[in-house]
Amino acid sequence: MTKYRRGLPQLRGHLFLTDDGIETNLMFHDAFDLPFFAAFHLLRNREGRDAIVRYYERFIAIARAHDLGFILESPTWRASSDWGEKLGYTRDGIGVINLLNLRARHESAHTPIVISGCVGPRGDGYDPGIDGYDPGIMVTTEEATVYHAHQIGVFAEAGADMVTGMTITNATEAIGIVRAARTAGMPVVISFTLETDGRLPTGQPLSEAIREVDTATEGAPAYYMLNCAHPTHFEHALEAASWMERLHGIRANASRRSHTELDAAPDLDDGDPTELGAQYAAIRRRFPGINVLGGCCGTDHRHIERICNACKEAA
């Protein structure tokens, strides 16, 4: 049963943690094979389900130790119909891990746990094109609304509190996700992928993308996030302006590598967890409204711990 759908506690300004780059973590640290980077594929057997539960519990433990809230993001970034079909799933055959049980076991008065249904882009998380087609052809808003409606509807029925569009590469698809979530009665967050220049893969500045989505949806998203870039890639794009009041979350990469370099790399670049924590804290000092903190590619529980400690000290 949903608990926070009508009032997300992270909107009150308290510090919330979330997890890291689940796919790189499971692949490089736990040695799982994730075809198409699909973490949800592990749900098909007991070993995979247990590994995902252990994964989440590491981060929940950090939040509980520091009396912070936690956003429990489902492992469903690749669980939309096009990607599921590549793995042999029918649209109705993609399972969803029961995160309600995890919340029931670990939530406390000081650590509210918000369950978010993770929605990935229809195409690739680095390229604004539709996967399998010309990279220059983007999904239209109408197509995105229809495409994402099914997965968002599953989250609504399963009792998720909210939906997060993760690694979204363009404002057009973001608008479709927001409209589908509104139809399903779900609070929605949009997290944009950024390149090394701090812009979306389309070349659009983050500020313009947020304004475009807000204008097209009457400000429907609960808030925005950014992901899949190192702080040195985007910190210059953050400014004291009204649009920054809509940005509440960061899920940065551990690595300074570009997306092209990360795609081609045979190793995991986990960067410097202490340095990353200090960079988050520096951003928080400038923009204290950013209160949802997690990681993306190459990060693990060490990075989240350092981010947590550094940002609590900064506060």
Note down, in words, how this protein is organized.
- With 315 residues, this protein is α/β, with parallel strands linked by helices.
- The protein has a single domain (16-314), classed as Alpha-Beta Barrel (TIM Barrel).
- Helices cover 39% and strands 13% of the residues.
- It has helices at 22-28, 46-65, 81-86, 99-106, 141-158, 171-184, 206-217, 231-234, 259-264, 273-286, 301-314, and strands spanning 16-17, 69-73, 113-119, 162-168, 188-193, 223-227, 247-252, 292-295.
- It has an 8-stranded parallel barrel, surrounded by 5 helices.
- The longest helix is centred in the first third of the chain and has 20 residues, at 46-65.
- The two termini are 34 Å apart.
- The model has no long low-confidence stretch (mean pLDDT 93).
The secondary-structure element order is EHHEHHEHEHEHEHEHHEH
Shape: globular
Please count the beta strands (DSSP E, at least 2 residues each).
8
Mean pLDDT: 93
Give the structural class.
Answer: alpha/beta
Task: Give the fraction of residues assigned to helices.
Answer: 25-40%
Q: How many helical elements?
A: 11
Under CATH, the homologous superfamily reads Homocysteine-binding-like domain
Highest CATH level, the class: Alpha Beta
How far is the N terminus from the C terminus? 34 Å
CATH topology: TIM Barrel
Q: Strand count, sense and closure of the main sheet?
A: 8 strands, parallel, barrel
Determine Rg (CA atoms, Å). 18 Å
> Which residue ranges are poorly predicted, with pLDDT under 50 across at least 5 consecutive positions?
none
